[in-house]
Design a protein that fits this description.
CATH class of the largest domain: Alpha Beta
Largest sheet: 7 strands, antiparallel
Structural class: alpha+beta
Oligomer: single chain
Number of strands: 11
Strand order of the largest sheet: 9-8-7-6-5-10-11
Strand content: 15-25%
Shape: globular
Order of helices and strands: HHHHHHHHEHEEHEHEEEEEHEEHH
Radius of gyration: 21 Å
Helix content: 25-40%
């Protein structure tokens, strides 16, 4: 059996075991809004796309697969393909540096632009002193994904530091970071969260290739993750958003609903410095060649939030952008082989 066939079968078995019929029907309804096809046909096509293109149901809805031709579908990078790249291109012995946020902060401290502590190494009094010095902090589960376990704590709201210290330890929220201020232009999008960029890079040993550049925004919540109510749109080579953003519910936004700030035409401030930063970041651990970097723009310049060695996939939404070709050709040209 060919490697690709075996990987596809494993993916299909996993999908069958995890099938959530209610979620499938919800996503089919979103796709039906775009395609105007009967729900039964959309569901059948979603199942076929999972078999033929290894497309998760959420991806099918996000990237409007219902309106794409067979040839167009073949140009889209899927999450299983990206996972394959992560396994093939990233050294196993260095993955923990990226999978554990405390290890990442230690290794990349020169690029963080913020102070941090590991609760496993300090007492409640040290936590109180740290939080009061910074006013507000972000607490994180070091090995979590997708924004799970991230909370904001304002020092003025805490009345019992011993209880807070114990609660955070019990919840494995070991990492405590100074809350970053953000550039006024970025805060204008959504002030309740630090709005970040996801820059996906590939290091071929000499050159750093930029595979995808994404603007992520919160929508009233404390984080900007797509899986927690946030939204995203793709950036062009100059760091400008040319198309509306969209969220996991399939809603699209030309302007931010919370602030009225225009998204279409939004130019990321200091974008040339962002590109310089990711160029340096991508060379820090050359054994990790395929990374999605989360970058924040502070008043003093861009800083790194984290590096994702198994980065998610971000691509333009066809019904919004008019772009019906995915990023697979760009990935293939840079990396030299197809993850299919």
């Amino acid at each position: 059996m060919a490697l690709g066939t075996g990987r596809r079968l494993r993916y299909l078995i996993q999908r069958a075991r995890a099938l959530d019929v209610r979620n499938l029907l919800r996503l089919a309804a979103l796709s039906r809004r775009v395609s105007r096809r009967p729900t039964a046909l959309v569901v059948a096509d979603m199942l076929w796309a999972a078999v033929r293109h290894q497309v998760a149901f959420q991806d099918y809805a996000d990237w409007d697969f219902a309106i794409l031709t067979r040839a167009e579908r073949a140009t889209w990078l899927t999450h299983p393909m990206s996972n394959h790249l992560a396994v093939r291109l990233n050294s196993r012995e260095h993955r923990d540096t990226f999978a554990d946020k405390t290890r990442f902060d230690d290794r990349f401290r020169a690029y963080l632009g913020r102070d941090w502590i590991d609760l496993r190494n300090v007492d409640a009094a040290t936590l109180a002193s740290f939080a009061r010095r910074h006013g507000a902090v972000i607490v994180k589960v070091p090995d979590s994904l997708g924004g799970v376990g991230i909370d904001r704590i304002d020092a003025v709201d805490v009345t019992d530091w011993d209880a807070l210290h114990a609660r955070l330890l019990a919840g494995r929220q070991f990492l405590v970071e100074e809350l970053l201020g953000q550039h006024l232009r970025m805060a204008a999008l959504n002030p309740s969260s630090v709005n970040t960029l996801r820059i996906v890079t590939y290091l071929d040993g000499d050159r750093v290739h930029l595979l995808a550049a994404v603007l992520k925004m919160g929508n009233g919540g404390p984080i900007d993750n797509f899986s927690h109510g946030g939204m995203y749109t793709m950036l062009d080579a100059d760091g400008v958003a040319r198309h509306a953003a969209f969220d996991g519910a399939g809603d699209t936004f030309d302007v931010h609903p919370a602030t009225g700030t225009p998204i279409v035409g939004f130019a990321v401030p200091l974008y040339d410095r962002v590109l310089d930063l990711v160029e340096r970041l991508a060379r820090e651990v050359p054994e990790m060649r395929y990374i999605g970097w989360d970058i924040a723009i502070t008043p003093d310049g861009p800083v790194v939030i984290e590096g994702n060695y198994n980065t998610g996939v971000f691509q333009p939404k066809p019904s919004v952008s008019g772009i019906r070709i995915g990023l697979l050709p760009r990935y293939r040209d840079a990396i030299g082989f197809s993850p299919r």
